Amino acid sequence: MKRPPKAPSVTVSDVAREAKVSKATAARVLGGYGTVSEAIRAAVLEAAKALDYRPNELARSMTTGRSGSIGVVVGDIENPFFSLAVRGISDVARLSGINVILANSGEDVEAEKSAIRVLLAKQVDGLIVTPAQSGDIGHLAEIACPLALLDRALPELDVDTVTVDDRDAALRATRMLTRAGHRRIAYVTAAVLSGEFRGAASKINTSTVRERILGFLDACRDAAIEGAERNIHFGSGRSESAHAVMQRLLRSDNRPTAILASDSVVALDLFKAIRECGLNIPRDISLITFHDADWTSVTTPPITVIDQPVYALGKSVAELLIRRLKGDDRPPERIVLPTTIIERMSVGPSSAT
Amino acid sequence: MKRPPKAPSVTVSDVAREAKVSKATAARVLGGYGTVSEAIRAAVLEAAKALDYRPNELARSMTTGRSGSIGVVVGDIENPFFSLAVRGISDVARLSGINVILANSGEDVEAEKSAIRVLLAKQVDGLIVTPAQSGDIGHLAEIACPLALLDRALPELDVDTVTVDDRDAALRATRMLTRAGHRRIAYVTAAVLSGEFRGAASKINTSTVRERILGFLDACRDAAIEGAERNIHFGSGRSESAHAVMQRLLRSDNRPTAILASDSVVALDLFKAIRECGLNIPRDISLITFHDADWTSVTTPPITVIDQPVYALGKSVAELLIRRLKGDDRPPERIVLPTTIIERMSVGPSSAT
DNA sequence: TTTTCTTGTGAGACCGGTCTCAAAAGGCAA
DNA sequence: TTGCCTTTTGAGACCGGTCTCACAAGAAAA
């Protein structure tokens, strides 16, 4: 099949000429504004069809100032958490005839800044961001278009935000572990810390990370577990060393008898590492993870998870943003979605000697 | 933290006035074209900084005709196959300073058409599409900008295409099954057929689906298996009934002793259904699936998969498209990437009585 | 019939950049 | 000093839409 060469691009003026009316009139019917008589409208429409006119959205945005698209900056589309959230966002956006320009930050602030700059230059009408770090939020604060935060709240930034009840979720999950008799419980997260962590959880400024650690520590305190802070492991991302870190953790003398993982990617790595160490879940070690990823239900044993309403997260944040684009000027909302724990078979009594 | 209200948007003219030069000169330094004396360049740059000038990409695209973005239409971002491929695409795009506008077709041709129309109206410089159906490709054929096809080839469409060696992959996987003694082998795919399938595989026009079936049938013929066509099951998508279909398949009198699944989403459904039927892999039934999804390595037993270079698929198609955007006018290329089979533990000898 | 509205239409400015073209300025040889 | 060539600068058209405004025509009111 032959492909059409460059198209000379039919414009309003062309249609106007064809329909023998003024450019203004043709623009009126084509743009769907102003009033035009039925007869002329039909003529213009016919001319447009004959010429195969396609509006140039760019030119339209140029004058209206609205581009009809929103920018979304996530940490990593590859992570099923984000791809599901993005799905929620784009489903809502499509319903409003808005489209989504996606950018990956790779959880790197500089990449995030640059992505935002580019999206802004493209005149997106609004922005949904999952801030990579929260120490560095100047670039977010000075964004002049509507902004909404996804999954991670920034206390200093008074904008629409949708998160889940991370603290409570971590609390409940950890409590499930302490009630099973565990006292050496590790919390493993992919997040990297800017400074040094000295148990000063309240100083962590990425809300998701902070709240979860707070919840984790709450539960540990309730169970009178001392020094729980030392069992918090950061930076277990996807680098090669992360796997090694986990192996070391699992092989250490007083290895944890239970682990809470911050996301399904980390948990999968943990699961593999546990296996490679010849450990058995839940006999030797218990495991709970955030995010009900598809794999968690088919392992042996299936993994107990904290089920976050990820799709709804994306859906809500998009709804909030779009409402704002439509002129809503209520004070920013901070929606916290509930999580549920899906109990499967990965939690057992403590194996501590 | 206070959010800035509407920005009055600083333009080239503003900068020019501030720097006391003409608009044209200011535009030259800001746009980085033409020649300007060092003294004036510095002055303009300083004025721009003082005013916090940010270029309006839309206006720029307006005159240049290039928007600096490409459109990507995939079946479903939620599917890990696509999210990984999209990752590959956006990584490459970012390197070239191009950004990606993402659209979901939901594997529906009408949605695909509309997405393409919107993207084209947004003046994307190029388009990467995973055609949902191949009966209906008029809308693809008349696209006037560079187009590249991802994962699915369209013989009638002579454009850059990157696929994997589906036929060979299916052949090798099926052969692995026949060599293990299996003779009742089912092929289960999420793809839906436009017409009726009567064994006329060559008439299927979605290349991925056709090639795989062809490979499957090749292997069956080699093993002198009769009526293999009857064991091909379409439409096992994510609808409720799909699961039921599988259950029926598994509970039927002469249920297959081995299954080849077309993607990891279908395979996961199958895996669950097999379990629910109380069947054991690989004792009662063997399973191989396309796509090395993360879950396939952690199940008991781990699943033998056809590993497709998904990231590379996205990477290559983006490279091809971007090369074309840069003016390359070599004849369209059709790249076929190799697959490898990762043998795990889900294939055993036939359990046929 | 004349005046006053209403409604439909056309002319042209405008959005914020790019780019062509011609004029101005500077450099150098004669 | 004059002339010619090169480099720098400014004026203004242009991209493809939207939108304001003035005006024409027909309808309703006086």
From TrEMBL, chains A, B:
Record-level Gene Ontology MF annotations? DNA-binding transcription factor activity; transcription cis-regulatory region binding
Entry-linked InterPro entries: HTH_LacI (IPR000843), LacI/GalR-like_sensor (IPR046335), Lambda_DNA-bd_dom_sf (IPR010982), Peripla_BP_I (IPR028082)
Q: Which residues form the HTH lacI-type domain?
A: 10-64
Pfam families, per the entry: LacI (PF00356), Peripla_BP_3 (PF13377)
What SUPFAM superfamilies does the entry give?
lambda repressor-like DNA-binding domains, Periplasmic binding protein-like I
Keyword set for this entry? Answer: DNA-binding, Repressor, Transcription, Transcription regulation
What PANTHER family does the annotation carry? Answer: HTH-TYPE TRANSCRIPTIONAL REPRESSOR PURR-RELATED, LACI-RELATED TRANSCRIPTIONAL REPRESSOR
State the protein's name: LacI family transcriptional regulator
Q: Which organism is it from?
A: Mesorhizobium hawassense
What taxonomic ancestry is recorded?
Bacteria, Pseudomonadati, Pseudomonadota, Alphaproteobacteria, Hyphomicrobiales
